[in-house]
Amino acid sequence: MAKRFWIQEAIKKPGALRAQLGVKDKIPTERLVSIIARLRAKAKKGKLSKDELTLLRRALLALRLRGFKKRGRA
C-alpha cells in the first residue's frame, strides 16, 4: 500500500469552503487573507463559534494549498 501524506488526510470535504462562501469559481487570495485576518482578530478578543473556527481552518488550508503544484503539470 502506498504511503499517505498529511495532505491526503487533510481534505475531508472537497469544495466545502467554496460552498460556504458561495463562490462558483476560484476563491481570490485577497478574500482568503481578509477572512483569516478578520477571524484571527476576533479570536484574540474572544472565543470563535464552531462555524467561524471551521471557516478559519478551511481558509488557512486553502491558502496553504495555493503554494503546492499539482502533479503532472508544468
Description:
- The protein is mainly α and 74 residues long.
- The chain has a domain at 27-65.
- The chain contains four helices and no strands.
- The chain has helices at residues 6-10, 16-21, 29-45, 50-65.
- Helix 3 crosses helix 4 (50-65).
- The longest helix is centred in the middle third of the chain and has 17 residues, at 29-45.
- The model has no long low-confidence stretch (mean pLDDT 87).
Query: Biggest sheet: strands, sense, closure?
Result: none
Separation, N- and C-terminal Cα atoms: 27 Å
Global shape:
globular
Residue stretches low in confidence (pLDDT < 50, at least 5 long) are: none
Q: How big a fraction of the residues is strand?
A: under 5%
In terms of quaternary structure, the protein is single chain
Number of E-state strands: 0
Question: Which structural class best describes the helix and strand composition?
Answer: mainly alpha
Helix fraction bin: 55-70%
Rg to the nearest angstrom? Answer: 14 Å
Mean pLDDT: 87
Helix and strand sequence? HHHH
In DSSP terms (H or I, runs of 4 or more residues), the helix count works out at 4
